Amino acid sequence: MTTITPLDETNKVQVSKDQEHEDHRLFGLVAFLVADGMTFAGFFAAYLTFKSVNPLLPDAVYELELPLPTLNTVLLLVSSATFHRASKALKISDSKECQRWLMITAGLGLAFLISQMFEYFTLPFGLTDNLYASTFYALTGFHGLHVTLGAFMILIVWWQARSPGGRITSENQFPLEAAELYWHFVDGIWVILFIILYLL
Amino acid sequence: MTFANSPQANQVSPSLQPKGWLRYLSFSLDHKVIGLQYLVCGFLFYLIGGALASAIRIELSSPISDFLARDVYNQVLTLHGTIMIFLWIVPVVNGAFGNYLIPFYVGARDMAFPRLNAVAFWLIPPAGLMLISSYFITGAAESGWTAYPPLSITTPAAGQIIWILSVLLLGGSSIFGGINFIATILKLRRPGLKLMQLPMYCWAMLGTSILVVLSTPVLAGTLILLSFDIVAHTGFFNPTLGGNVIVYQHLFWFYSHPAVYIMVLPAFGLVSEILPVHCRKPLFGYATMVYSIMAIVVLGLMVWAHHMFTSGTPPWMRLFFTIATSFIAVPTGIKFFNWVATLWGGRISLNSAVLFSCGFIVNFVLGGITGVALAQVPFDVHVHDTYFVVAHFHYIVYGGSVFVIFSSIYHWYPKFTGKMLNEHLGRFHFVLTFIGFNLCFAPQHWLGLNGMPRRVAEYDPQFAFVNQLSSVGALIMAISTLPFLWNVIQSAFNGDVAGDNPWQGLTPEWLTSSPPPVENWQGEAPLVTEPYGYGITNEELAVEPSINDDIQIPQDK
Ligand code: HEM
Ligand SMILES: [Cu+2]
Fold it and tell me: If you measure from the C-alpha of residue B493 to the centroid of ligand 1, how many angstroms do you get, rounded to a whole number?
């Protein structure tokens, strides 16, 4: 018995069927975030190895304070929650509420970046001072880049979620969902980073 | 954003885009156009990489550095390795054949993300041109394709930075491609098509793409740190600043060992498609093939430090990585025996495609054997960084992957163009390549065992004769490209008309016209649940085994 469905002239091109094609963009985004996460994993592995096998050269300074990064952690965690509120508001088509929560989220992201900058300027070591210092700046800098990108994404999403006229509605939630997923990812990375860089 | 299968992807965009051959130079979203773009672009880079290889072999035909100055030799060597890996084999076995075939195999009209797909391809030409032009503008990188610090920090910075940038772009392209393949294979399957009914190449590409997504980003991160060391004078990998070179090696090989599977797993898949068609037998051991691929993916991520046995690795690490590496030989061996069993008792037509596939099997098993030998620390510490390693990996990347690329071109050219290639020229090409290849690389085992170090322009005069032998082989390989080039160019115009299915294949790409229409099939995608049903379920395609019947023919299950 043959198992090939033969090509058949009566089988008209099924355009209508094709249109019901699902949206795989979120799946693609998840795959991308796995890749992005691996970049961080490489950095973390490098940092942990440096810490365990490379003693600092004599008179190198590497000290971190806890209060500011703890505040940063709180800022990001809260911003994850506010983003979630925004997407819940979108689901019930309350675009005003959605935009409001998005603005708050972007504000929290910005506060995080400012406080991170503040930390950079008060730290007693610079980028090239010693191995740990370099790794510290590379890791937090790379993460900060992600936050910056995410903040821009939120602003774009905020603009697109306006009503009337915005592209993002309860029927087309994808851009908001994507930005939210990304933002949660960046927050999650921060928590790991906080534990590894500041607590360990 | 356009979706695969959506009418926009197939109807609106092509009419907005150039027609005829010009569309191959455009930002086309058609997976078949993109596949051929990858193939032709990769082949052009192969010609450049091959010219560099010839320069290396000319230099090495005498023990002194006469044809190339030492620093030029280093640049040529670095460019050769980088081009062959990142611009020829990886883009072609993944990007070219993957893009062309995977949508057919899963019964889709395009890849999951056509636009991302086009972006991934168009990152390649600028990255490649940037890399090559660095030779003329600033001097190319000199630290080899591995860019080990401190060498890469102390050699001239400009060329090294351009090298890093272009590898980052190529890595990005590779990651985008990998995401696209995973989404296409897992999400775009035609309704009714089960995973275990997919042609083997889909599994190979799924495994490869998982490796790409997990390991390429680590290389990217590492190279960013390296560029900081070069530009900003941080000391991540610089021992004089308190840094650690071994960490670079670990991170680099965490990508680059999987990278060898990124080069060879898709080739495994392609051979598994080609052999059953031409020996009219089902692929032997489908399920074991699938499990072997997945085992290779998992093990492939855990063996990287076998490249670092002489880097002061502690004994436990040597032990672990020797054992893990040796284990890889098991799934690899399963695949090898499955191909042999597929051939066994089949009615094999020994055309160019099959010849190259069989050449692959022979070369690959030799490279695999030297690989297992290299995995043993007591042996490796003697031959590490000698020509033995060069021989090992050329048996695998050239004798393996490149042979498969040629085999695949002979096999799918009729589908790509609607024309047949000339068989006589094809066989001539095979004979030249096979002889040239073995003459070039087999003697290098001897050179390595006798202590000739790799990566240097000068060597002890006692090695001169064997090096000249190897150079003659390289010359034959270079000449072998000519009949091939002539064949693919003139067959496009004067070749015999192929028809839709010249090989009587059962996989879906043969069930449409040659070349296929933009939307892949006139009607709905066919449901092929037995891509290898030769001679078993399909009466018309059944053939009697040609070999006398008293030989026991292995049967799957
Ligand atoms: C049975 C499977 C294999 C084993 C056990 C194996 C083992 C090894 C080992 C131990 C080395 C390090 C030698 C040294 O530097 O001292 C090596 C090098 C290498 N192998 Fe393999 N290998 C295998 C398959 C492959 C495959 C499939 C590829 C590529 C498609 C490959 C490509 C390479 C390359 C490129 C190098 C040299 C890298 C460099 O130093 O530049 N190998 N192999
Ligand atoms: Cu390896």
Answer: 41
* pTM of this structure: 0.90
Domain ranges of chain A: 28-55+63-199
Decide if pLDDT at B29 tops 70.
Answer: yes
Which of B396, B398, B441 is the best mutation target for the ligand 1 pocket, counting ligand atoms within 8 Å of the beta carbon and taking the most? B396
Low-confidence spans in chain A with pLDDT less than 50 = 1-20
State the fold for domain B25-510.
Cytochrome C Oxidase; Chain A (1.20.210)
Q: Tell me whether residues A34 and B214 touch, CB distance under 8 A.
A: yes
Q: How many CB atoms lie within 10 A of CB B460?
A: 11
CA distances from A5 to A8, B150, B281, B415, B524 (A): 8, 60, 21, 20, 10
Three-state DSSP class for residue A4: strand
Classify domain A28-55+63-199 by CATH number.
1.20.120.80
CA distances B456 to B156, B379, B381, Å, are 18, 22, 19
With pLDDT > 70 as the criterion, what percentage of chain B qualifies?
Answer: 93
Collapsing DSSP to helix, strand or coil, B179 comes out as: helix
Kindly report the nearest CA distance between residue A134 and chain B, in angstroms.
6
Domain parsing of chain B, residue ranges:
25-510
Confidence at residue B21, expressed as pLDDT on a 0 to 100 scale? 75
Angle between helices A174-193 and A131-160 (to 10 degrees): 160
Q: Are B284 and B342 in contact, with CB atoms under 8 Å apart? A: yes
| Mean pLDDT of chain B, nearest integer | 91
Cα B497 to the chain's mean position, in Å? Answer: 29
